[in-house]
Amino acid sequence: MLDGIFTGLSTAVMPFNLLMVVVGCFAGTFIGMLPGLGPISAVALMIPITYGLDPSSGIILMAGVYYGAVFGGSTSSILINAPGCASTVVTAFDGYPLAQQNQAGKALALAAYSSFTGGTVGALALLFAAPALAKVSLSFQSTDYFALMILGLTAVAAFSGKGQVLKALLMTVFGLMIATVGTDTTSGATRFTFGSIDLIDGVSFLLLAMATFALTEVVMTVLKGEHREEEEQVDMSKLGSMKLSKEEIKEVAPTIGRSSVFGFLVGVLPGAGATIASFLAYGLERNLASAKEKLKFGKGSLRGLAAPESANNAASTGSFVPLLTLGIPGSGTTAIMLGALIAYGIQPGPRLFLDHPDVFWSVIISMYFGNLVLLILNLPLIPYISKLLVIPRPILIPMILFFSITGVYLVSFNTFDIQMMVVITVIAIFLKLLEFPMAPMLLGYILGGLMETNLSRALVISDGSLAFLWERPLTLAIISIAVIVLVVPPLLDLLRNRNRTRGAEVAVNEGEG
Amino acid sequence: MIITKDHIGGMGFLLLSAFYGFYAGDIPLLPGDEFEPFHARTVPYALAILGGLISLALLLTAERKAEKRLRLNNYDFALVAKLLVLIVIFGLALEWIGFLLATVLFLIAGFWLLGERRIKMLLMVSVPFAVGIWFILAKLLDIYLAPGQLFVQLFGG
What we know:
The complex is a heterodimer. By secondary structure, chain A is mostly helical. Chain A has one domain. Chain A has 22 helices and 2 strands. In chain A, strands 1-2 form a two-stranded antiparallel ribbon. Chain A is globular. Chain A starts with a helix and ends with a helix. Chain B starts with a helix and ends with a helix. Chain B has 6 helices and no strands. By secondary structure, chain B is mostly helical. Chain B has helices at residues 5-24, 42-61, 77-97, 99-113, 119-140, 149-155. Chain B folds into 2 domains: 5-68; 77-155, no CATH class. Chain B is 67% helix and 0% strand. Chain A: Pfam families: TctA.
């Protein structure tokens, strides 16, 4: 393992890769600060750039952007109460009240320290957890992989929120359907191309990711009329001191520790990710607080700010564990990175650790560098970076549109792709208006091809019988977890509702009696 | 009867699954494939059935609440449509008038559509931006950007 760490370290400290971390963090912070654009859009916008780099540098750049975007999201949450992404919504609960009390500097610093600790704890845990898990997963067979992918897809659906499970499942199936368009890898038959030459290679990953996450997100802000809103001017003279007192550090230290470990564990679960981690950590912290402390939550509590910030960063790191070891992304952002790795010809999974140790370790090490960059460079520069938010929306939006379109065009040099992006964007807008989540679709699309290959292998080995699903204990165990993850939460909901209605009936009867 | 977002979505996906399943029958098979446990139609058929079942489940379980209705009043569809048409035109223009000119025109039109009317601002932002990007791509990264068809035909390649 030590060998690996050194390989990773030597790759990560190469000047060019260090530059990528810095550039990534800055670009990410800026994109993350723009309301409506979160880490997924930021990472998607980077894909075309990474195509020109070698795999380690590309992934390092994306990891930097990911971190930067999460950090940028917290900054706009605190300064203007406009979370850039879902995982920093909770940050605004206590961060914005602090800013209103002229303590924005303190809130930003605390957010940066919490993120840093969360990221550090996450990176250390990843350092030990990933190789251990990768070793175990080396014994996996095609049936286990098939089962794991089913687990990954169902978990994403199951964690997508109340009343959203069926919709998320439908979107997953939709993604799997899109993955079947084009030439079938095993038989060479063309599927669903309707005679078009442009569809023979299928829908490209880059095109789908850019259309659904970059183009659609920007167009949605126009659709909602948000481009007309004047950005709230932040008065930098009111930032206040960035220093925390000793008592304040003592107060938040246990919170940060707890939330970091908790966030990492949530992040490791496929499908859960940073948003859920931040909400859960905030809830946990509020329950642990004394009655007096509890009143402060939502009005500028330091603990209420530290908890979600450390948890979301630790979870962002945690979501790399299933990506690097099993090849199954834990969130939308890691799904995009998986797609990018596959485009490089690198198959994430247990073999990654053996075949490409430089990629594996340099990603882990550079994540830590990313945290350092955010703390040392980004924090002092926040007043300047936030000036960029002053660029008027009518100027900014066409530029982002331009980047997303040319990003796709410059890879294929086929204008058909641009028209295709528009079609996908129109579909995505309607799906968003109907409240269908987008991430499961991308996940389904990315895992679709691999899933079909593993299923075909498993079916051919077992001569067409589906018995492989329950004959191998490991496969059975994974499938069972997938079923439990999918079935138990709705059942619990149903039971709770029934109890509630029964309780209400009893109350009504008593009232009548 | 209240028709909610879930009903519309469920119905849409049900139709999609039916359409997808129907066209899955058109996938060419290799001779003898029909006796194999796995062929090019296996996954598409499975997906069509799965999609159909889940959409039915969504249709049956959708709550009929008034607040879940699809409301389209507060959205600026006209502007979005104009922007999307602009993107399509940009795609065509790339082939005909080349990268540089197409980019400048796309940006000016985009700024204009979103409400920027100052001519000086339109030109001051779009031209340096487009030239900068063109310079990075064509000169620094050495990416070949084809000249527009129009100029090739008018003045010869």
